[in-house]
Amino acid sequence: MSVLDLARPEIRAMQPYSSARMEASGGRVFLNANESAWAPPGDGELACNRYPDPQPAALVDALARLYGVRPSQLLVGRGSDEAIDLLVRAFCRAGEDAIAIQPPTFGMYAVSAQIQNAGVVTVPLQSDFTLDVDAVLAAITPAVKLVFVCTPNNPTGQLVPLRDVVRLAQALTDRALLVVDEAYIEFSDAPSATSLVNQFDNLAVLRTLSKAWALAGARIGSLVANEDVIGLLRRIIAPYPLPRPCVALAMQALADEGQAAARAHIAIVRAQRERMASALAAMPGVREVLPSQANFLAIRHDDAAAVYQRLRGAGILVRDIQRYPQLGDALRITIGLPEENDRVLDVLQQMAADVAATVNETTAGQGA
Question: What pLDDT does 28 receive?
Fold first, then answer.
């Protein structure tokens, strides 16, 4: 059985759109795309008057080298969100098929499924926020075409061991496509599931330049998968997904100097993550700091709403994750610059002191 047998038959059969840029090979005078012949002011060498390549070869090659795969196994698009949406649209028939997720986890898997009118099968993480492989496999029905696994998980930060990924991929062969989201993998010591793509044709891995590579604003994400899956998604991706300036920024980040800078920043984040975890765990009112292999920490509080408002009042924005299952008392704090982290700790220490002073005043008044 081919992995494409899991995809929508109408997508497999469709004639993909052929863009003008795809037909531009060998051309020197471009009069086929109704573009402007004049570059915009300040354009430099970007040539933004011309449509960009649908899959820029230099960028695809650089990312393939980075992830240790062949260029034919990689699709680049507008962040991981686009790849998630493309997968759901390619594999899930509206009103018939479904995806499987393990909440609490990244919300865009379910959103993309809901937009497609696909079902969402939920298998909650265990009480310690680890993945229950047996429970996931037990929940898979013939309708489930995609199983999303986030590692390190967002918003909790825990890793899914590679052995669990292997077990899932093996068990889901000919049943579903396993999609492993590794948006935060660079902040961990874990090996990437991209090393398994040649072993399992039903495995796809999401990677991004938004986090460790500091390009959230450029929206560069990749899907690594079997060539047949990549070819299928190329049929339905937008004709020109990547703006030329974004591609130029990505190429700078992936050059030797950019890679050295990324490694240095990752080391700082990891050191600051450990410092923040220790400092926060010792604070009054903090119930637990969840172990994290990402660039953030999820923290349980006695009064998460009050902590959120206190930080917000000080101009510090953190993520309120109380709406997530099992996280009704939690906030997520991204690891920032050392001085930004210091500011968070200062505000929370002052809040703890204010609470203690109020308690003392109340106790003294009751004694009087």
Answer: 85
Sign of CA dihedral 226, 230, 231, 232: positive
CA 101 to chain centre: 14
Cα separation, 67 vs 201, whole angstroms: 17
Given this model, what pLDDT does residue 20 score? Answer: 82
Q: How far apart are CA 326 and CA 234, in angstroms?
A: 38
Residue 171: name the closest of 118, 214, 135 by CA: 135
Name the CATH topology of 258-367. Answer: Aspartate Aminotransferase, domain 1 (3.90.1150)
Question: Tens of pLDDT along 209-236?
Answer: 999 999 999 999 999 999 999 999 999 9
Residues of the chain with pLDDT under 70: 24, 359-368
Q: Sheet of 296-301: strands edge to edge? A: 286-289, 296-301, 330-334, 319-320
Instruction: Write the DSSP symbol of residue 173.
Output: T
Residue 107 phi, psi (nearest 5): -75, -15
Domain spans of the chain, in order of start = 3-19+54-254, 258-367
One-letter amino acid of 321 = I
Per-residue pLDDT, 360? 67
Query: What is the C-alpha to C-alpha distance for residues 102 and 125, in angstroms, rounded to an integer?
Result: 6
State residue 269 phi and psi, 5-degree precision: -60, -45
Domain 3-19+54-254, CATH: 3.40.640.10
Query: 298-338 pLDDT, tens per residue?
Result: 999 999 999 999 999 999 999 999 999 999 999 999 999 99
- The residues with which 297 forms a beta bridge, in sequence order, are 333
